[in-house]
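Why do we bother with holo predictions? Because pocket geometry can differ from the apo form. Keep that in mind while you read this record for adenosine-5'-monophosphate-propyl ester.
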Amino acid sequence: MSDEKARPGIEALLEETRQFPPPADFVAKAAVSNTSLYEQAENDPEAYWAAWARKLDWILDFETVLEGEAPDFTWFADGKLNAYVNCLDRHVEAGLGDKVALHFEGEPGDRRTLTYADLLREVCRAANGLRSLGVTKGDRVAVYLPMVPELAITLLACARIGAIHSVVFGGFSADSLRDRINDSGCKVLITADAGWRRGKPVPLKATSDEAVAATPTIEKMVVLERAGVRHEMVEGRDIHWSDLIDGQPDECQPEWMDAEDVLFILYTSGTTGKPKGIVHTTGGYLTGVSATTRLVFDLKDDDVFWCTADIGWITGHSYIVYGPMSQGATQVMYEGAPDWPDCTRFWNLIEQYGVTIFYTAPTAIRAFMKWGDDFPASADLSSLRLLGTVGEPINPEAWTWYHERIGGGRCPIVDTWWQTETGHIMISPLPGVTTLRPGSATHPLPGISVELRTEEGEVIDEGGGYLALNRPWPGMLRGIWGDPDRFVRQYWSFWDDKVYFTGDGAKRDGEGYIVILGRVDDVISVSGHRIGTMEVESAIVEHPAVAEAAVVGRKDDITGEAICAFLILRDGFDHSPELRAEVQDFVGRKIGRFARPKDVLLTADLPKTRSGKIMRRLLRDIAEGRALGDVTTLADPGVVQSLKDRYQAEG
Ligand code: PRX
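The structure, written out:
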């Protein structure tokens, strides 16, 4: 964390005093309806997690639970299991083969229903197909697919044969895909011709070709024909999905994995320009996601669960694929945009499939609010019984709207805090137990322990501080792919006593309610997607017109935060609106469209300290139209006032 970012008094939000106890009829049916589970877990956290782990199927039971020292913990290390078998075979063997696993709806309106038996068959064929390409245990497989069932099938096929999947969200650019493939040395890339977004095909094969031009480890590319878009196939390297699985047997011997064998890598942004490949292993991760799916969502056998995240992000990994599927849930999966062909799409899906649990992001909720109440009011949402949010702080106004307009005032809302690194939900209400307060993720889950600390490491009982996780948990990241030093530096070195630092600020009131205040490091959250300011800066300075760039986040009514870029141009380049748009597009091409800066200000100078460090804190003040903070350490205090005037003038 840069020192000027280590803001001393973390801002406190407005007090929210309304309280929402769990409704009596919800409590009556809830799996957990009193606090005894918290006490039980607190008395013996290891026994608590071991009991959850034993609800999974192990081919070799574990004897050890937690071992090691920070940061190198292991969970259930002498046990053996297969994640896939836990997600599919055991349900089919238990007689649930005909239960619907996925109700899929593509953006153009195409539908597919896959039962657990169907999925088992499809995944075995895909797993055999991957084996026929020479993929074996420990090989890395890059996945760059739209939100179609084959995405889930690919993850599970990798898990079946012990290959490590590395999913790259379909919105990332060719450069981002290339860097991620090279970082973990993937052998195979699985992609599609294109996916659908707002009525248009988003090309993926063409982007993959561009990426793979500079990825020496890729031997094969598998191409799913999703959108009927013309595409080139490279002889000897490329193979269509349909040809890969054609004639493959419906059965496939699973690879038995040690609990600590790697299940997947997922890249996330950090405070440097280079994304981090977060490593998750098999036994602990699966224990964590299955336990939290049951508890937080109070999942019952007849529920219809819909998590709107893309599988390209951790939420989709944990709460579409591994959590709900290990629990045999019926799910809805939708490919496209919520406003296509119009803003009723989500609500019609809920009505049509009788969705009972709906899990989405605050950004989406704020967009729904803006579109207006008529859209949700036009559909029958009475099937819903529980709502959830994830990815960013939810403002009490959006919480209230969600509670009333979507939940009809009767559905509890679980505001779930967690991270790519934590693997599963860490702070959240239990819907049958916790009295809710809008804007608060409430308390750590049973078995989880958190602390708020000052920068010096002093523990704070009440008030604002840095959010730390001071007890190991089963789904915790086991490292950063290929970079053990960064793993220690990034997460375990903020304080001397090797406690995990989340990068978030939070505050806690006298009753233990936690409000997450957002990132305190150089990471921006746009629509809940983490983007490092350094990552955007490194992309921008590759533009030939740019000499220097400083990127900060500012508040945005819909996306939570928006990216603002302050640029100094090289001599000979004119400040023009065209150049601003060009820089925005440039970042879109370099990283992905979702990382395009919303505001771009071209300037002759940036506020710097006498030692030459850019004072981003002041740039944030400017971007948010606030009074300027302390400018006494600036080399040239005049710069910042003139920047402020220009920023306001250019709106
Ligand atoms: O800042 C927190 C925010 O999202 C970050 C994690 O981002 P990512 O790894 O992309 O995972 C997002 C989905 C789990 C956190 O450090 N965040 C996540 N959930 C919440 C949140 N902020 C406030 N409230 C939440 N419920």
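DSSP finds 21 helices and 31 strands in the chain.
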